[in-house]
Amino acid sequence: MLVQSLHREDIKAAIRKRHGSVRKFAAKKGIKYQALVDWLRDRPNAPVGKLVEAEMKRARRDGQLAGESIMLDHNSETSETHRQNAEAR
């Protein structure tokens, strides 16, 4: 399944890009918002999972889904110290 290979934040971002918000997506698809939120929190719900899977396939087909999360590099050697952090030391 496509959704199993994606991070939940990538799924939410793709839904927001296409529908404006997760709540609007739920309303357009005729599902309860809380059921969608629960599914995003790894609480199984087959009908919601099928809708999200179909949505992610559409997003990937339309080129709106990168399929991977951006990993931030927090290496202290290469990044600047934030002003507030520097003052705290």
UniProtKB/TrEMBL annotation:
<dbReference type="InterPro" id="IPR010982">
    <property type="entry name" value="Lambda_DNA-bd_dom_sf"/>
</dbReference>
<protein>
    <recommendedName>
        <fullName>Transcriptional regulator</fullName>
    </recommendedName>
</protein>
<feature type="compositionally biased region" description="Basic and acidic residues">
    <location>
        <begin position="74"/>
        <end position="89"/>
    </location>
</feature>
<feature type="region of interest" description="Disordered">
    <location>
        <begin position="63"/>
        <end position="89"/>
    </location>
</feature>
